[in-house]
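Problem 3 from the worked examples.
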Amino acid sequence: MNKKLRFSLVAVVAVALAGCGGTDATRSSVRAVGSSTVYPFAKLVAESFARSNPELGSPIIESTGSGGGIELFCQGVGANTPDIVNASRRMKVSEFEKCQANGVTEVTELQVGLDGIAFAASRGGIDMNLTPEIVYRALAARPFGQEQTAKTWRDVDPSLPGKPILVYGPPSTSGTRDALKELVLIPGCETRAEMQALKESDEDRQEQICTEVRSDGAYVDQGEQDNLIVQKIQGNADAIGVFGYSYLEENLDKVQGLRMNGIEPTYENIAQFRYPGARPLFIYVKNAHLDAIRGLRGFISEWAQMWGREGPLTRIGLVANPDDVAARMQAAATEFPALTASDFE
């Protein structure tokens, strides 16, 4: 973007800051919305930034879910819109296009680290070696297009306990739910050749069969509150929870991770993508706000100082980026390259 156009965008945001009513009229705090999984990391960065910059307002971090946060982020520019969206999945092409249509024409994508979709139970509770196919057959509304009849885990696989299927997990607005679909449910569904063939002939039908979760009480949507899922499984030895690895790491005194394909959900297994639920975590920055919102550049710099392999974020469960990605992200955190349509190809 040329300097004149960038200046014009900054001016538009500055006018919006001055023209909005209420507290947003003089907003001096960075505002971030989005993923409940990224939330604890963003909060720690915000606390560190506030200590180092007492003259600025403490960044406001809201847990709205990845999808809900991106919706807010892409509404436009100005003080009544977020500066950052945290996401536990990559922005979709359709969301990028909505941003563009609403004047959010320059967005920088930063991969802040890795996480894993952890399946967990209470310490001393139910213990299983899961696979994507087992999880899919247990949770799908219509597994492989057939009626869902499984009541217990043994109904799914005779080697598993005869305990009732009860899984507490994220809602449809959550990036964790999207990752559950992409990393576990779809691979589990596509273990059948007919499901792979259906993708070729009727992709929408295949997606519905592979990703629609049962609604008969076996899967319980707990909203954007991963800590509540921890509480639920801690209080029920037969229940399983699905949340980001960081929450498992933070609560190992209360819960235990369940194996997937025989692989434990650990830092090293996620970092090396051995664990099937490994996924990247992102923040998206509204470039038009960089020079209009005080502290925004500094807040991004704080992220970059804290996300390294020996940084404070790894102590609360973030898995650091591989070295090549880490080098690119360090540069991006100062240069702010804008996403383009070709980045999604």
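Problem 4, a separate protein:
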Amino acid sequence: MAGFIGKERHAVDEKGRLMIPARFRRKFEPVASLGVGDEVSAFVEGIYILKAPDRSIELYEPFVWAGMRKSISGLSDFNPEERLLKTLMYESLETVELDRQGRIALSREFLDHAGITKDVVIIGADTKMIIWDTDRLVTLLQESADRFASLAGRYF
């Protein structure tokens, strides 16, 4: 199945609700449950949202987060760096539900983290969606424009 691709502009309403673009909502069709064999809907488990270190918000489907959870669970609670990473990850994580209109409610903590007051850009980044305050994204893109060629050359 193809991942999330593209970008869309939306606005957060006065209650902190964000409409997930219809083309991205289609990805939340029932998926095979991990190891159980029956069908479950992503709506049942919710969507995992993470405060990213770059001041954006990332959205993950449950089956994608399951792989990340497995990696995080493999970290040792007895290694101080690994324990810190676990704490930082889970402190930055919540789950939200899609309502009947295809919206998610973002908490004040998440909105403040990303500097979101109204307008956002939702970027489909294959296995996740990234939500940016429109002005922050424009600034990031302008400041990083000259780095694209060198980054692409280094990693591709």
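Solution to problem 4. The two ends are 23 Å apart (CA to CA). The longest strand covers residues 4-11.
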